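User: We ran a pulldown and think these components assemble together. Before we commit to crystallization trials, I'd like a predicted model of the whole complex to look at. Sequences follow.
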Amino acid sequence: MDLPTENRGGRQVVHVDAPRIDAAAAIHFKDRMREVTTSGHGRVVLDLSRVEFLDSSGLGAVVSVMKQLGPDRRLDLAGLTPTVAKVFRLTRMDSVFRIHPDLDTALASGSDAA
Amino acid sequence: MAIRRALRTLSHWLIRQGIGPSHRGTVQIVIAEVLNNVAEHAYRGTRAGPVTLLICICGAGLAVHVSDRGAPMPGGQLPDCSAPDGPGAEAMNEGGYGLLLIRTLTRDLCYTRNGTCNNLRFLLPLLGDPRE
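Assistant: Here's a predicted model for the assembly, 246 residues in total across the polymer chains.
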C-alpha cells in the first residue's frame, strides 16, 4: 500500500493511495502509517479521497493509528467517500475524529489545540 | 482476498439489478463484515472453508442467508454489541464494530446452528430510490 506523504502548512499529509482498507489490508496500513509518521511532527491529515471502501478492520486500524500518534499529534481525516463516511457515522466515530470534506478544508482549518 | 472477490462479484450482480452506488455501499459493508466474521471466528485456526451466500431481492431490500461449516457461535447465539458511549480514545476498542454495523444496517437478524452448519439470515432494507 502506497502512503505518499508531504508537509503542508506545518502538517503532515498522508495520502492513502489504495481503494480499500479492509481486513486484508488493515495490518499493512497500520504498519506503514507507523513508518511514515515516525519522523514527522505536528498534526497529521489522512487523505482518504481515493479509498472507496473501509470495513471494521480498517476502522480499527485508523483508531489504532490515532492512539499511536498520541495526544500531541492530532489525526484529522479528509475526503471521505460516501461508503467510508457511512462506516464512520454508523459507529459514531465521526464524533471522535475531526472529519473534513476535502484536503483544502482540512489544511485551512485553524491550528488550534492539538 | 477471497472475500474481496466475492464482494466484487456481488457488486457486479447488484449493478445488473439496477441497485445504485449508495445502496451497493451499504450491502458491501454488511456482507464484508459477515464474511470477515466467518473467516475470523467460525474458521479461526483452521484451513479456509466454504461459505455459501444466498441473496435475493425481496421487496425494498435484500433477503440474505449466509452459511458456513465452521465452529459454532460461542453460547449458540450472536454476541451483544453497542456503540462506544462517547468520544475518548483511551476507552475505544479497536474491534467490535463489525457486529455493530451488521446490527445497525439489517433487520430480523437470526442465527441458527444446524448440525455442522452455521446459518445467518437477515433482511437488508434498501430504502428510497433503488438507483441511489
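The two ends of chain A are 28 Å apart (CA to CA). That may be worth checking against your pulldown data before setting up trials.

User: Thanks, that helps.
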